[in-house]
Structure formats: structure tokens, C-alpha cells
Amino acid sequence: MIRILDFFLASLAFLIFSPILVFIFLIIYFENKSPLFFQKRVGKNMNQFTLIKFRTMAKGTKSCATHLVENSKITKLGKLLRKTKLDELPQLLNVIKGDMSLVGPRPCLPSQFELIDIRKTYNIYDYLPGITGLAQIKGIDMSNPTLLSQIDSKMMKNLNLYKYFYYLISTFLGSGFGDRVNKKMNQ
Prior knowledge:
It is built from 8 helices and 4 strands, in the order H-E-E-H-H-E-H-E-H-H-H-H. The chain is mainly α. The chain has one domain (2-186).
């Protein structure tokens, strides 16, 4: 059921956001001639796939986890794209293709050995990676692999349609929305 929702919603979002996608593509193209960024990531069953994003870092920047990148390597436009999460829009193609889900654990790099090992113990690779999820809403990144794996595992074990839409809406409306809904759910 979630795969059908993923395909339908990602296709719809791609169509709706296509003018924005083209606009961002052209701006980045005129800035550095290389608007898209392709990077190998670890997906379901530990199969590698190629993640697509808008380029936010200077061309030639070493491929590493976002939290390890120097701020000076992020372009001015890249800072805005990251802040607004617009750099993630091309990943809708990964969802349409079936490499990712809209909701799931963020895919890591093949070089993040510690995170990969910890994720194995939490069975994270039983699931498709996602564009967003509970860890993103809570602001937990890959710099804390154990906490990230625990949160991702909890999210995936308890994922249902209600929570799927909750994570999508919380991401779209910002973490403040997620915090308010979370408080109401825990009362």
C-alpha cells in the first residue's frame, strides 16, 4: 500500500513542482554548469543505488556525509536550498523508480561503516530508505549513529498510514508543526 502511495504522491509532487525544479536546475546550471549531484547510497537489503539531489556544494567537494562538510564548501544558493529542503526535490525520481520511499530512514553513504554496522543491528536495511522521517523531524542527523538507528527502527516498526502522512505533513510544514502534533499525541 505504501509503495502505491509513494509512487502516486511522488509522481504528483514531481508534476506540481516541475516548474520549481526547472527553475532551480537553470539557476544552478548558470552558476556552475553542474546542477545535479549523483551519489551512491546504501538502500534496502544493503543494495547501493544512485541518489539524485540538486548540487549545493562547490564542484569538486569531497563526497562525505553532510554533517562533515565545511560550511565554506556550500554555495550561497546551496545554503538556501538546504534550509528550504529544495535540494531534495530530485529524490522524487528515486521514489518513483522504487529506490526510495517518501518516508523512511535517510540513506547513508557506503563509506559510513560505523553507521552501517549499527543499522544492521537495528534491521534498518529491511526497509526502503526515505526522503524524510522521524529523525529528520526531530533534527537527528548521522553524526549520532546509535540514536539515529534507534529512532529509525522505532519509526519503521510503528509505521502506519496515519504516521506516514504525519511525517510528510510535519516535514512539509516544518518541525514546529511536528512538535505541536507530537505534544497533542502524548497528552
